[in-house]
Amino acid sequence: MLPQLEVQSLPLVNDSAPPPRLSIVIPMLNEAPGIEAALAPLQPLRADSVEVIVVDGGSTDNSVVLATPLADRVFACKPGRAKQMNHGAHHALAPALLFLHADTHFCPGDEERAVASIEDALNTHDWGRFDIRLAGQSRLLPMVSILMNLRSRCTGIATGDQGIFMRRETFLIVGGFPDQPLMEDIELSKRLKNLAPPAYLSAKVISSGRRWDKLGAWKTIFLMWRLRYRYWRGVSASQLAKEYHNAR
């Protein structure tokens, strides 16, 4: 079990240095098979005033060892995606935040363009998200991706897989991610939507379709819609988290 303390991959930040223009916060838990591939494309951004923060939730594999040389800072905290992302945001230095899941990445070669699009969007919006393209074996994933993007545009609600970004002050105003074990992205989106409408970026992030491949596309679609409906009906996130993990 990892100790609950910060792991520094670089020396302490120089207070006299200008702040980064964007902080990318990546929650991680047992992502050793893919974390290097997720972080490697972000390395040119680190040389261009973009901060990469990884927050581990108690990995029992060598995720932290693999991530450390590829991030500006790596932290360890109690498990829970909301806790991890809040922890990373608390230590972020940039005026803009991007929350990127460990299995989500920019289209290859579009990293700098994606960062520029975030900066442009935040000139006129408080927050926003990318369109998503799910990558996996199921032939249904392209259609699922289209429907996810359409649903988001119709409802103003974003999921964490879509790469949610916002101004730092906006994150503070809404109180960050709610400390709940599931639907934290949905709840945060509701708070942000009440504050201001989102920016919808047609530029895409690519997210792993591994849960669709593992459980089956139709089963996963039914499961996620059922959970979202029951959450809308007032069922607690804790109860839904139990059902979700049991189904997985």
From TrEMBL:
It is found in: Cell membrane. Transmembrane segments: none annotated. One of its GO terms (cellular component) is plasma membrane. InterPro entries: Glyco_trans_2-like (IPR001173), Nucleotide-diphossugar_trans (IPR029044), Trfase_2_rSAM/seldom_assoc (IPR026461). Keywords: Cell membrane, Glycosyltransferase, Membrane, Transferase. Residues 23-128 form the Glycosyltransferase 2-like domain. Coiled coil: none annotated. CDD domains: GT_2_like_a (cd02522). The keyword Membrane applies. One of its GO terms (molecular function) is glycosyltransferase activity. This is Glycosyl transferase.
